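Students often ask why we bother encoding 3D structure as a string. The short answer is that it lets us treat folding as translation between two languages. Here is a chain of 221 residues written in the first language.
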Amino acid sequence: MTPEEILKGLYDETLVGNGPKVLDLTQEALGLDMEPQSLLFDALIPSLEEVGARFERGDFFVPEMLIAGRAMAGAMEVLRPLLADTGVETVGKFLMGTVKGDVHDIGKNLVNIMLEGAGFEVIDLGVQVAPETFLAKIEEHQPDIVGFSAFLTTTMPMFKANINALQKAGMRDEVIVMVGGAPVTQEYADAVGADGYAADASGCVRKAKALLKEKRARVSA
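And here it is in the second language, the structure alphabet:
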């Protein structure tokens, strides 16, 4: 296959979530000495963006997003160390976790895949993440954005507890705070003092990019 055919194949097979084929094409591309960043920016990311657009139009649903995301994640396992070696610039660093008391992670994992697909470096702390763990990991990794996820209405108050902990530690101004999860609304996000909220994974990517752009513009002003 020519490089152009490989890129088109990667785009098409990611779109339909054909993980094994995406992996085969990735290996074939690397065997032809194609640049890892070309595979990422010319095929994989555009494909995931199309998945997000189809989801927003109602043409795709969560299962289609998940299998497309998993197909891309398989390719990223191979490409990640190669991209690190080439020093490819990431969009930003996003630290993510499901709040204390909550063990749900399907939505969070989907958001992580979409963020990584959009060029973010994602640090996933998993589930049941206590405020003190978030603080320690924010200090360790210095992320641009921290994401708090909750699936249960009973764990949503942890958003406020986490934000309070950040304020108490003098770290609130250092990071952008985003919240999300099935029961979360824009009104609730505003009430707890979050910087951003998104109803779904593709919306989260868009919002994260916009918030990061705003913050960087403020800093350079």
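Translate back mentally: The chain has two domains: 3-86, 93-220. Keep this in mind for the problem set.
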